[in-house]
Design goal:
This protein has about 160 residues and is mainly alpha-helical. It has helices spanning about 1-15, 50-65, 70-75, 80-95, 105-125, 130, 135-150, and strands at about 45-50, 100. The longest helix has 19 residues, at about 105-125. The mean pLDDT is about 80.
Amino acid sequence: MGVASDAVIQRALREHVSLVMEGVHVLPTSLPHLEEDSNAIVVPLVLAILDTDLLRQRIAGRGTEVPQRRAERYLENFDSIWQLQSYLLSEADREHIPIIANVDKENTVREVMLTVNDRIGREFSGSAREVFGEAIRHERNASAQRTDRRPPSPPGS
């Protein structure tokens, strides 16, 4: 997956777009290293379900939500799935990549956002204007234009 991952990352860099690469097929330790001048901020992290019973429940639930995923096939191979997750977690731990327990959606999203924000915060020390420059002015102008297009409020409101 290294060549494919590298191609996807290089395209995102060329097009100046954000990118989230996810999936069990993406080894966090094998992501290509980016040149220092790429302006990319890479935030590797691993989501994990650390309880075997909960992972079995999630897999069974996926089969209910998306029948074509055939949960029974995954459940029949549960030991292999658990071994693969254990390998990915040990690799992440070895490389000091954050591991986030995926127990419930709200807490998981919060932890992901905190991890991303922490990483971004280490990259920038200036004010929003210094970091984002012209983008702030353009966004402020776009917001003002959107506000100007709103229909007038009814009298008395």
